[in-house]
Amino acid sequence: MEAISTQIEGVVEVDALECLQDNTAENSDTRGDAGILLRSVLTFSFLVFLPFWRSVLQSINTIQKRLQDPQMNFKDAADDVLGLKEVLSMRGEQFCTDALQEGIKKCNDWNVEMNHGTRRRKRMPGELDQVRRLRERDETNNEVGSGCHRFRYR
């Protein structure tokens, strides 16, 4: 995760994926895969979730390294896991806020659309209003917020 989040600017800004996509010396699978990857990376949800998961996984990785220590005992391991739970519940909202801000900044820097419709929401029985298109930004905000809620209340 760290490698992706630190190297993504080089891959996107240097146009490495576009070069692969347009390079006629590459086979059609490579060109097609580069195009798919480029379209997937340049989305609001990817650019938000990348820093979100980087923050979460860094916290988990720190504890995981300690748990692999052969000198670790059960009490210290339990304390570390409880500490991780506390960190995620206390800082989960900050992880979400920071990720949204960083994702919005990258979208603005790279001219990535944040508000195009991504899917249609199914109408539930008894629902009176028309089926509406969910904007990617709204949907991603909901998903990140849901993740923060899980950290806080689990």
Model description:
- This protein folds into two domains: 1-41; 44-118 and 130-154, no CATH class.
- The radius of gyration is 20 Å and the shape is globular.
- The chain has a two-stranded antiparallel sheet.
- Helices cover 73% and strands 5% of the residues.
- The chain contains six helices and two strands.
- Residues 128-133 have low confidence and may be disordered.
- α4 (44-67) runs parallel beside α6 (136-153) and α5 runs antiparallel to α6.
- The longest helix is centred in the middle third of the chain and has 37 residues, at 74-110.
- It has helices at 2-13, 16-22, 28-41, 44-67, 74-110, 136-153, and strands at residues 117-120, 133-135.
- The protein has 154 residues and is mostly helical.
Describe this structure in a few short sentences.
With 154 residues, this protein is mainly alpha-helical.
